[in-house]
Amino acid sequence: PFGTIAIQLAQHRGAKVISTAHSLEDKQYLERLRPAGARVIDVSHGKIDVAESCLEETGGLGVDIVLDAGVRLYSAEDEPASKSQLLPHKHDIITLLGVGGHWITTEKDLQLDPPDSHSLFLKGATVSFLNDEIWNLSNVQQGKYLDILWWSYTMEKLSSSIFRPQLDEPIPLYEARVSMEIVQKNQARKRQVIQF
């Protein structure tokens, strides 16, 4: 859901978007988004080199912003089995960043080795972390104000059909408690739509 909104917001602002999809269904959904124009790279078969595809798309210049939903920190043989092998490797992301690029990551355990830092330094690139829970730690008034701004802006774009959320199958009200318990026990991290 976050990626879908990020793609639509970037397109609305006039950015050329390159996205990855992990299934044919996701690829078809992303290609149907309006405004059209996002280049979707299907990585479900694992044969596509994301960095190479992005560099080809940008004429070798690289991208301005990378927003990831997780990265592989190690090579395939060293990676824990629980991690998805469909995620891009951190070296691929650093490779596809252009000069002055910005990498926004959701990876809380990101470790950059000296060669990685040196590559980012030479490109003048930056790394930022995206953490949903940061709103709980921010100044209460600032958080409320930004939340109001974001809410009114988002609702305006939703009502004019600029943003179209990708909704999972709604769950019946009687299953909401079970789903909430799973999330609270950190067994899953997801957003659910409850059908009344």
Question: How would you describe this structure in keywords?
Answer:
single chain, 196 residues, alpha/beta, two-stranded parallel sheet, 8 helices, 15% strand, CRYZL1, NAD(P)-bd_dom_sf, ADH-like_C
Give the structure's gist in a few sentences.
The protein is of the alpha/beta class and 196 residues long.
Model description:
By secondary structure, the protein is an alpha/beta fold. Among the domains are: 132-165, no CATH class; 166-195, no CATH class. Helix content is 40%, strand content 15%. The protein is built from 8 helices and 7 strands, in the order αβαβαβαβαβααβαβ. The chain has helices at 2-12, 24-32, 50-57, 90-96, 114-123, 134-137, 140-159, 176-184; strands spanning 18-21, 39-42, 63-67, 97-105, 126-129, 171-172, 194-195. It has a 3-stranded parallel beta sheet. The protein has a two-stranded parallel ribbon with strand order 1-2. Strands 6-7 form a two-stranded parallel sheet. β4 (97-105), α5 and β5 (126-129) form a beta-alpha-beta unit. The longest helix is centred in the C-terminal third of the chain and has 20 residues, at 140-159. The mean pLDDT is 77.
Strand order of the largest sheet: 3-4-5
Shape: globular
Calculate the terminal CA-CA distance, rounded to whole Å.
21 Å
Radius of gyration: 18 Å
**What percentage of amino acids are in beta strands?**
15-25%
Q: Encode the helix/strand succession as letters.
A: HEHEHEHEHEHHEHE
Which regions are unreliable across 5 or more consecutive residues at pLDDT < 50?
Answer: none
Helical residue percent band: 25-40%
| Broad structural category | alpha/beta
- Enumerate how many helices there are, as a single number: 8
Mean pLDDT: 77
Q: Give the tally of β-strands.
A: 7
The largest sheet is: 3 strands, parallel
Protein name: QORL1 protein
InterPro entries: ADH-like_C, CRYZL1, NAD(P)-bd_dom_sf
Domain Alcohol dehydrogenase-like C-terminal: 3-69
